[in-house]
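Technical note accompanying the year-one report. For the benefit of new consortium partners, we illustrate the data format agreed upon in the data management plan: each record pairs a sequence with a structure-token string. No post-processing was applied to the example shown here.
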Amino acid sequence: MITLYTALSLWGLPSISPVCMELETWLRMAKLPYNTIVVTADNLS
């Protein structure tokens, strides 16, 4: 299972990070199973 660590969602987009959004789109198109973990400043420690 792939784990995708991504930035917050905003404006209806999956992530505010273009790289994370591109990778998540590729994973969905390739139909690969993955989990998404949203990384914030609160859960960095």
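Partners are asked to follow this layout when depositing records. The longest strand covers residues 2-6.
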